[in-house]
User: Which sequence fits this backbone?
């Protein structure tokens, strides 16, 4: 029994200095940190909205499983009729350079606008990219932006396979600038 105890005591002593000496420099050489979503929220701001666009489903649009999704209520008109739009906002784990957003969805059409703004002001700041939704929509910015939040704002709704006007987001993925 004494023989196994000696190697166990030696192994941590040998490994500890190597980990401490090399750990920091290896991480520094790895390059920029890719954008990571820490949390998300649905946006349906008052006075015309009631902040109730299926908040229970919000995490499903960034859970890594494209079979799950966040979705809005459906509307009679693709222009809503009573409000300027709804949104989906992500908060990053730390401010990070973002170059594009990839959206997986089961709806087509409508308009999505991407901004690097606080969720409390979803329509403020420049539109970094915009376009209609399709099965896999990639919205690339002219230049990467350092962001703590990314807001997807939908001023016009796409249609689902049943012809209903609503947003369905299966996955939201933030992409950093290309290495180079």
Assistant:
């Amino acid at each position: 029994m004494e023989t196994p105890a000696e190697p166990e005591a030696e192994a941590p002593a040998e490994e500890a200095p190597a980990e401490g000496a090399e750990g920091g420099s290896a991480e520094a050489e790895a390059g920029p940190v890719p954008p990571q979503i820490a949390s998300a929220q649905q946006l349906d701001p008052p006075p015309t909205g009631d902040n109730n666009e299926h908040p229970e489903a919000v995490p499903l649009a960034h859970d890594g499983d494209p079979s799950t999704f966040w979705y809005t209520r459906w509307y009679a008109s693709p222009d809503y009729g009573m409000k300027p739009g709804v949104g989906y906002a992500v908060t990053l784990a730390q401010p990070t350079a973002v170059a594009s957003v990839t959206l997986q969805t089961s709806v087509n059409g409508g308009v999505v606008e991407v901004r690097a703004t606080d969720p409390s002001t979803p329509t403020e700041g420049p539109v970094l990219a915009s376009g209609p939704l399709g099965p896999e929509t990639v919205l690339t910015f002219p230049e990467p932006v350092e962001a703590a939040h990314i807001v997807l704002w939908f001023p016009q709704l796409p249609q689902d396979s049943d012809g209903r006007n609503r947003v369905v987001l299966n996955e939201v993925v933030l992409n950093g600038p290309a290495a180079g």
In short: Confidence is low (pLDDT under 50) at residues 1-28. The longest strand covers residues 136-156. The radius of gyration is 22 Å.
